[in-house]
Amino acid sequence: DAKTTQPNSMESNEEEPVHLPCNHSTISGTDYIHWYRQLPSQGPEYVIHGLTSNVNNRMASLAIAEDRKSSTLILHRATLRDAAVYYCILRDTLRETSGSRLTFGEGTQLTVNP
Amino acid sequence: KAGVTQTPRYLIKTRGQQVTLSCSPISGHRSVSWYQQTPGQGLQFLFEYFSETQRNKGNFPGRFSGRQFSNSRSEMNVSTLELGDSALYLCASSLGGTSGANVLTFGAGSRLTVL
User: Fold this and answer.
1) B18-48 burial, b if ≥16 CB within 10 A, otherwise e?
2) In angstroms, how far is the first alpha carbon of chain B from the final one?
3) Considering only CA atoms, which of A95, A46, A93, A103 is closest in space to residue A73?
4) A41-72: burial string, b at 16+ Cβ within 10 Å, e else
5) In whole angstroms, what is the distance from residue A32 CA to residue A51 CA?
6) Cα three-residue angle B53-B55-B58, rounded to 5 degrees
């Protein structure tokens, strides 16, 4: 799978927007961009995914650069419960054998200050 | 609907013993994959089962094995435990499509401590 690069840590204040960046300069045309997060003492949790267009769901928004070499996960109003490690992962849609194999990087540790 | 259930949540074993962990996927999900999480190595893929067949395997020694039953429930086994096997073992289920859009749902994990 293509590699992603994320900052090790970020801080935000409660009720403010948070923009979590991810660089994926070697992304292929068939790679989906996925975001998962892991809260303390829990398993990873799916957040959002997209291919080319920006995506919104109840948890977050995903903004994908026009050249697809970077993306940003946007939490519109951070809460204390959003403090977690956020992982940006690429999934190749054409690799039949990839199945449910996710390649996790280090992720970004998000701290939310009250 | 019920999420992914892993049992036991915590267990302590000694070196040389073996351990079996269980995972019940979300109803209707046919794929179960297993991951190991340690502070040093992060989250690493162990293997995936789909329709009772191993579909993908990570880079772990043969001491790590798994199986899937006809009801999609899965077990993983670690034999001859080593201290380095101490980790959080996570199970994830999905519908099983190979599309890049396939989304995984993880359980809370089984915390294994090897003494």
Assistant:
1) ebebebbbbeebbbbbbbbbeeeeebbbbbb
2) 37
3) A46
4) eebbebbbbbbeeebeeeebbbbbeeebebbb
5) 5
6) 125
Of B4, B92, B107, the CB nearest to A100: B92
Determine the residue among A100, A101, A102 to mutate to test chain B binding: the one whose Cβ has the most chain B Cβ atoms within 10 Å.
Answer: A100
Q: Which amino acid is at A63?
A: A
Starting at the edge strand found earlier in the chain, the sheet holding A18-23 runs A18-23, A70-75, A61-64, A55-56
Q: Which helix (H) or strand (E) holds A113?
A: strand A108-113
Q: What is the pLDDT along chain B (115 residues), one digit of tens a residue?
A: 679 999 999 999 999 999 999 999 999 999 999 999 999 889 999 999 999 999 889 999 999 999 999 999 999 999 999 999 999 999 999 987 777 778 999 999 999 999 9
Tokens of B15: 């070196």
| Residue B67 touches partner A, C-beta closer than 8 Å | no
Give, in degrees to the nearest 5, the angle at Cα B100 between B97 and B105.
65
Provide the terminal-to-terminal Cα distance of chain A, rounded to the nearest Å: 37
The region that residue B109 occupies, defined by phi over 0 for left and psi between -120 and 50 for alpha, beta otherwise, is left
Pairing, β B10-13 against β B110-114: parallel
Residue partners of B97: CB distance under 8 A and separation at least 6: none
* Token pair of B52 as six digits: 């009772």
